[in-house]
Amino acid sequence: MEIKFDETLHKYTVDGKEVISVTQLLQKHKITPSYDAVDKELLRMASERGTLIHEEVENWIKNNEKGFTEEAERICDYLNSNADRDSRIISEQIVANDIVAGRFDILFTYKKELVLADIKTGNSKHLYGWSWQLSLYKYLYEKMYGQKIESLIVLWPRNGSMDAIPCEYVGDDKIENLLNA
Q1: Integer CA distances (angstroms), 43 to 29, 34, 37, 126, 141, in order
Q2: Which of 1, 27, 100, 171 has a Cα-to-Cα distance from 144 of 20 to 30 A?
């Protein structure tokens, strides 16, 4: 399977065919919240801050380079404390099938079990949408690589703390129903 991602257009192609992104699929079916009513400038600033934090975590994972945001530092400290020492931490990996594609934030092992983690930097907790997003990534990863992911968590650095919030897998049946909708 050949997967390409156009960063500027945020478009995925799988074997030459354009597919919907995980984010777009969840928005289309109103599984994730709409931010249409939020002030555009406030949304832009929050998005830029979130992107910076994601980039800093990715640079730490891939190049062992520390960033300067407190949020990225708390996420990296969490991974240092919880990821198995002898394992590799994977970040920003694309997963896809012939319908949908997306890029998950972090995959690591904890006590020899795979954990899929998503970084959230917003002010509001959206557990339902987060569970769906992580469930889609889990489903796609397991189909592509044949490895079982045991846990789904959201890493939510906020208010000076670092919350690791467990998310429930929504199940293969629900994922497949969504993909076929």
Answers
A1: 21, 12, 10, 16, 30
A2: 27
Q: Is the pTM of this model over 0.90?
A: yes
| Sign of the C-alpha dihedral computed for residues 51, 63, 104 and 79 taken in this order | negative
Round to whole Å and give the CA distance between 159 and 169.
27
Does residue 34 surpass a pLDDT of 80?
A: no
Amino acid at 149: I
Instruction: Return the residue matching tokens 């990534």.
Output: 137
Burial class (CB in 10 A: 0-12, 13-18, 19+), 138: buried
Q: For residue 38, what pLDDT band results from cuts at 50, 70 and 90?
A: confident
**Quick check: 119 and 106 in contact, CB under 8 A?**
yes
3-state secondary structure of 141: helix
| CB-CB neighbours of 127 under 10 Å | 12
Mean pLDDT of 79-102: 95
The label of the residue with tokens 């990715």 reads 58
